[in-house]
Write a structure and sequence with these properties.
The protein is about 40% helix and about 20% strand. It is built from 15 helices and 16 strands. The longest helix has 20 residues. Bound molecules: adenosine monophosphate (AMP).
Length: about 425
Amino acid sequence: MSIISAPRGTRDILPSESWKWEYIINTASQTMKDFGFSEIHLPIFEHTELFSRGVGETTDIVEKEMYTFEDRGGRSITLRPEATAGVMRAAIENNLCAQGSFAKLWNWGPMFRHERPQKGRYRQFYQIDAECLGISNAMADVEVIELSVEIFRRLGLKNLEVVINSVGCEKCRPIYREKLLQHFNAHKDELCETCLTRLERNPLRILDCKKESCGHVADEAPDIFDSLCEECKSHFDEVKKGLERLGFTYTLNKRLVRGLDYYTKTAYEILSGDLGAQNAVAGGGRYDNLASAIGGNKIPGVGFACGVDRIMLVMEEQGCTFGNEPETFAYVAALDNDSRGAVQILTHELRKNNIASECDISGKSFKAQMKNAGKYKFACIIGAEEIAKNSVSIKNLTDSSQVSVPFDEAVKYLHEQAARF
Ligand code: AMP
């Protein structure tokens, strides 16, 4: 029988990597708390309509990347391809932004998109996501960008670039769309096949095309800044001023439109110089129409998502540290088989007193146990002599010194020793 492997585009996060993963999540979690964001846990699957209406029918995500299936009750269900629509759904359903109040929420977890896998692009990938709901002021956009930059600063990421744009609103975008249509129609023969279909359905997405010939046409396209309405213009000015106030440098990119329809006004990405083709570590922006698109009252929002897989790649590439590798403090070894019971009792006591400890549970010889103990700080040894004296021999594995401690005082002794590290 053939061996069953993980599905294409998925991967296992093994113990050699998972402790680094935990460091990234803990750092993000602490930063979120410091910025006043509370964690929210959401379902991994939602009704398909949430994404088709929220993210947009003509987006790549909805058109070709969703994992959609019919459940046993005949409902169309989709594994979430992104988190924002789910957060907004939860906020509406649970009335989190009632009567003009606001909610600052974050979450992290797996997302699913049926894309062509490559370095930094997976079909199951992980995002850390923050959303500030209920505030239309540009200060919220600045705070969200500040938050994403701060997470990366704490993680020690270097060589990052903040790229911003404004994609306008329902008032000014149709005017811009018309200008784009005129321009792209005049250069139809230079567009790739995908962009020709975008021309019909969503011409803004052509600006985002990575193909060279489309890129040239897009570079020559009318500038969105010339089409923004007064409100969008002044909002964008406030965002830029806010970033400058905090001492952030940013690049303007009129071609940054991002792949999700719900964006209004601010769109931004954080790019890494160390990632190759998939160079975005975070992306986000404002989405003032998402709530109404999914059937709620108007709730403005701004947020971002960053890819944990990509953060990990950049951190490895840049030699960043991940805090300390987890270590177990004490190893409890049995000199002979008769002492194994006492060893298990002592290990149990140590664990109950928050002393990270392990003992052999596979029946290894004393010599093999002590070989294992090498990576610990202390070895607690119990044999016939210790049992007779109701004591434990505790060996400091750094300097090889050894003491005999009454069995009942082992916890106290190791606590004192731990305080010295
Ligand atoms: P998006 O939801 O497309 O705006 O993506 C936000 C962030 O999620 C990106 O900047 C990436 O860091 C990450 N990301 C998006 N798609 C993938 C993927 N297929 N594999 C790994 N990371 C991804």
